[in-house]
Amino acid sequence: MAPISPRRLAVQKAIASAKFKQNSKKAEDILVRAIEDARDYRANPHASYKGKKVTRDSFGTDRPKGRKDETLIRALVMSALFRSWLLGIGKSPRINNKGYPASPFVIFAEPILRMAGIGKIEDHLEQYRSYRKKALKNFHVK
Q1: Angle between helices 6-18 and 71-89 (to 10 degrees)
Q2: Could you list the residue range(s) of the whole structural domain that residue 29 is in?
Q3: By CB neighbour count within 10 A (0-12 exposed, 13-18 middle, 19+ buried), where does 36 fall?
Q4: Which of 61, 93, 108, 110 is deepest in the core (most CB within 10 A)?
Q5: Does 54 reside within a domain?
């Protein structure tokens, strides 16, 4: 039997502490895959050549310098967190206000976000939740 990775063990611990009632294995797989993808995207960023002048000798100018935008990486991990919480608990996650005691969802999300290299947990959770609310505003399932 292959050894269990430290990421998988940490995710299992977070799921156990959150006391998921159902689908804990599926939620674990979703979270581990999201963390691994986030680490991979951070290590090997994709910056397209769209809109750059193509010359005969190269694909165009250099890619931009400086810190890369990690909004999409955060969205990947946040969507995995929200989905796994819905699968395991069956209710929509609640995020506490800054300075107040942490809600069960924030306690569950903190070690996972730390593993993915994401800080300012409450700020990013709030930002993703507002984005998700706007995106799903006009989406109705019959």
Answers
A1: 50
A2: 6-44+67-135
A3: middle
A4: 108
A5: no
| 118 assigned to some structural domain | yes
Burial class (CB in 10 A: 0-12, 13-18, 19+), 15: buried
Give the total number of structural domains in the chain: 1
* Secondary structure of residue 97 in the 3-state scheme: coil
Give residue-wise pLDDT tens across range 18-58: 999 888 899 999 999 999 999 998 888 766 555 555 566 66
Cut 0.85: pTM above it: no
Q: Could you please report the per-residue DSSP string of 48-89?
A: --TTPPP-SSSSSSPPPPSPPP-HHHHHHHHHHHHHHHHHHH
Do the domain assignments include residue 21?
yes
CA 71/CA 82 separation, integer angstroms? 16
DSSP label at 47?
A: -
